Amino acid sequence: MNTITTTNFNFPGQKSVYRGKVREVYNINDELLVMVATDRLSAFDVVMPKGIPYKGQILNQIATKFMQLTADIVPNWLIATPDPNVAVGHLCDPFKVEMVIRGYLSGHAAREYALGKRMLCGVALAEGLKENDKFPEPIITPSTKADNGEHDEDISREDILAKGIVSEEDYLVLEKYTRALFQRGTEIAASKGLILVDTKYEFGKTKDGKIVLIDEIHTPDSSRYFYADGYQERQDKNEAQKQLSKEFVRQWLIANGFQGKDGQQIPEMTDEYIATVSDRYIELYENILGESFVKADISNIDARIEKNVLAFLSSK
What element of type H or E holds 287? Predict the structure, then answer.
């Protein structure tokens, strides 16, 4: 199966390229950003050696859909999606924090809680919680935005302000937008029989100083979903929740002795296992959006992307 794991485009007016864990972002004339969602798979802040077929298309199309579904409550950077793997938007200066919001004690928060920690990013957690319990109110637990190869770190609102990472005025907007997006995402998930457990949002400032949502939103890479049906019954019986996220990849890696720590080797992902991961991502897409996934032509992904982006740029 063809995948796209790295790109080397040279678009008209191209100023620079930023390569993130999954996305590659091309600066066009300091006005536009062309963001290519690759098929790379990142877990524990480490990029896996092999790509996952259709993963980039899935992430890009889910993010595009949710940008459209939330544009009435939070402005975003998106202008167009000229290719299944590509989003084009306004050039923004990103904030150096990721706004993580959690409705349930799951994932990283549950792992920290199990270690005995009762304070997460400056937020006090009650005693007596068990994994996947719902919080009385969603909590915001920001993290620093690390460079490639580095780990994101938990950080409190107080530290963000004290270190001048974000001004208090801007941070209040980030919190407001984060809660509004999570509420909308929760409502959309519920309409699909899902629970939006936790997610992260990234924001930036446009040239005219407007704060906008950037990057991705409510994708399986940035979010965790549970199936709503049977949630409480599973909690009452202390059973694992049925999840829709890439947590299944993290659990497979943990079971194979890898959590991104120094000295650990990434276990080999066979072609058979990669095919199952691709199938799970398609399942995620169809459940989250409630529509069938239409596979793009992947016979020559690079040529397809280049053709579509050039056509878009020439029309501007």
Answer: helix 271-289
Interval 27-80: pLDDT, tens: 999 999 999 999 999 888 888 989 999 999 999 999 999 999 999 999 999 999
Position with higher pLDDT, 297 vs 146: 297
**Which tokens is 191 given?**
């309409």
Determine how β-strand 78-83 pairs with β-strand 119-120. unpaired
d(CA 85, CA 285): 14
Structural contact between residues 62 and 222, judged by C-beta atoms closer than 8 angstroms: no
3-class secondary structure, 160: helix
Question: What are the structure tokens assigned to 159, written together?
Answer: 């530290």
d(CA 155, CA 157): 7
* Interatomic CA distance for residues 81 and 57, integer angstroms: 11
CA nearest neighbour of 33 among 174, 207, 149, 170: 207
Write the DSSP string, 241-259: P-EESTHHHHHHHHHTT-S
What confidence tens digit (pLDDT) does each residue in 153-172 have? 999 999 999 999 999 999 99
- Residue corresponding to tokens 């938990």: 154
Contacts of residue 205, Cβ cutoff 8 Å, sequence gap at least 6: 92, 93, 95, 170, 211, 212
pTM of full prediction above 0.70: yes
Cα–Cα distance between 125 and 48 in angstroms, integer?
A: 33
Burial tier of 281 (Cβ tally within 10 Å: 0-12, 13-18, 19+)? buried
Sequence-separated (6 or more) residues with CB below 8 Å from residue 181: 70, 73, 74, 201, 213, 217
* Residues 177 and 74 sit within 8 Å (Cβ to Cβ): yes
Beta-carbon contacts of residue 104 (< 8 Å; ≥ 6 apart): 132, 133, 134, 135, 195, 197, 198, 226
- Per-residue pLDDT tens digits for 212-247: 999 999 998 899 999 999 999 999 999 999 887 787
Mark 125-144 as b/e (b = at least 16 C-beta within 10 Å): beeebebbebbeebbbbbbb
